[in-house]
Amino acid sequence: MADGSVVVALLDGTLLDPAQPLLRPDDLGVLRGEGVFETTLVVDGIARDLDEHLIRLTVSAEQTGLTVPAPDQWRPGVQAALQAWTGGSQMVLRLIASRGPEHGSEPVCYVLGAELPMASRRQRRSGVRVLLLERGFTVAAATSAPWLLAGAKTLSYGVNMAALRHARANGADDVIFLDADGRVLEAPTSSVVLARGRTLVTPPEEAILAGITVRRLFRAAESAGWDVQTEPLTAADLWAADGVWLTSSARLLAPVVAIDGRPRADGALTGELHRLLDVPD
């Protein structure tokens, strides 16, 4: 059963009532945030970059020592959720694998669909005000300590959500994390991209989640004649850039219009980048 505005499906395609419990109270995803997930945008019934998200889900699971079903085993659940959806033209689709009870043998896996928040749609155009916050470790430390799971997309999102609450309590919308040496990392739910003239730059995939939307943007930008680069960045690079954006799989691309309370422009480039990414209205 599904009410159309929220849909839940098991991997075999069975639809569940979203108002009914699915996880046990002792599921380790609930107790300890143990599990992995992926999020992508569905536009007019088509899930963007689904193959890449299924692959990244598997990579995150491997990093956490969790065995999840193979990518193709998720597709019946995804298709069931897409067919059951009766909401708007843009749906946020989540693929979730919770570790399950401590003495269980398999994770609890399901597909969740919900309406894309209006704030995400609005920020694509109006932009986001960000604060720069230190994440508390260096890139080198995170790279040498795989148990920090810096490059995995896990259910343990407490720090990320706390950072967003801190931003909103201080007159901002979002955050860009820096490492302890001042290197630009990522945002709580987004990757960071900047422009220098006709060159797009993003930080290396070190101690951060590999950005699927960044990769898609860079492929399209190269085809359109842009140069693209991956290199370490600092706060000074953000200030000096012709434009700064946060990219993610649901909001897609939002211009940064202020950093630490100081306004900044996007170089009139956001519209062009939106077209490269096929950002819907």
TrEMBL record:
Pfam families: Aminotran_4. InterPro entries: Aminotrans_IV, Aminotransferase-like, BCAT-like_C, BCAT-like_N, Class-IV_PLP-Dep_Aminotrnsfr. One of its GO terms (molecular function) is transaminase activity. The keyword DNA-binding does not apply. Keywords: Aminotransferase, Transferase. One of its GO terms (biological process) is carboxylic acid biosynthetic process. One of its GO terms (cellular component) is cytosol. Belongs to the class-IV pyridoxal-phosphate-dependent aminotransferase family. PANTHER family: AMINO-ACID AMINOTRANSFERASE, AMINODEOXYCHORISMATE LYASE. This is Aminotransferase class IV. It comes from Nakamurella multipartita (strain ATCC 700099 / DSM 44233 / CIP 104796 / JCM 9543 / NBRC 105858 / Y-104) (Microsphaera multipartita).
